Amino acid sequence: MKNDLVDPLYFTRLAEQDPADVCRRAGCTYDAAAGTFGLAVWGRPYAVDPRKGRIFCAGPDPEPLHPYFDLFALHYLLSAAEVPPAGQWISEKDIPGGTTFFRGPHAVPAHVIASRFDGDIQEFTRRCAQYGGTKLALADTAFSFVITPRVPVAVLLWQGDAEFPAEAKLLYDATIARHLASDIIYALAVGVCEHLGR
Asked: Mind listing the pLDDT tens digit for each residue in 30-52?
């Protein structure tokens, strides 16, 4: 199914790149016969066909991801650097230019997660485990997810009480800006929040 969020120009750009270089940078695979890149997105196998301009789940019983994940996956293949995760978490405000970019219409919608799991940390834990989360010793509870091979994301949740509402926050590996521009990091963040919080 065509995703109107994805400009066909980016598929053209991907088709012009050396598949071996893309695979080395992004940690993906390439099927020369089919002309498709194989990329794990949040633990699910996806195929990106630059010649036909489409992205689809290549596994059985696919669960749809947020449409922004298509945008993220394509840009990840185009721009990922051959840099492993640093193992250091940062917020979107720590990303160069992040204090001005990630606000207003580009504010990360972590409230979607906070409102969904307010007062129910057990359900949050169950859902994070369902999607392959790894427990972290942060906030009241937190989990990290390998969204693509070089892009881990952490989701933190503080339980609300009589004085303060529940709060959620996303953190990113310190290398995130080496791989993605701020608008694509925003697309990734929206996808994560909507997927976990729906």
From this structure: 999 999 999 999 888 999 999 99
CA atoms within 13 A on the CB side of 89: 16
The answer on pLDDT for 93 being more than 60 is yes
Which candidate, 111, 139, 141, 114, places its Cα nearest to that of 126?
141
Give the total number of structural domains in the chain: 2
One domain, residues 69 and 95: no
The pTM for the full model equals 0.92
**How far apart (Å, rounded) are the C-alpha atoms in residues 19 and 30?**
7
3 in any annotated domain: no
Burial of 176 (0-12, 13-18, 19+ CB in 10 A): buried
CA distances (Å), origin 70, targets 39, 94, 141, 159: 11, 25, 29, 31
Cα 97 to Cα 95: distance, rounded to the nearest angstrom: 6
Q: Which residues pair with 158 in a beta bridge?
A: 167
Q: Summarize pLDDT for 130-141 with one digit per residue, the tens.
A: 989 999 999 999
Residue where a domain terminates, one of 79, 111, 127? 79
Confidence of residue 53 (pLDDT cuts 50, 70, 90): very high
Which amino acid appears at position 68 of this protein?
A: Y
Q: Which domain holds residue 70?
A: 8-79
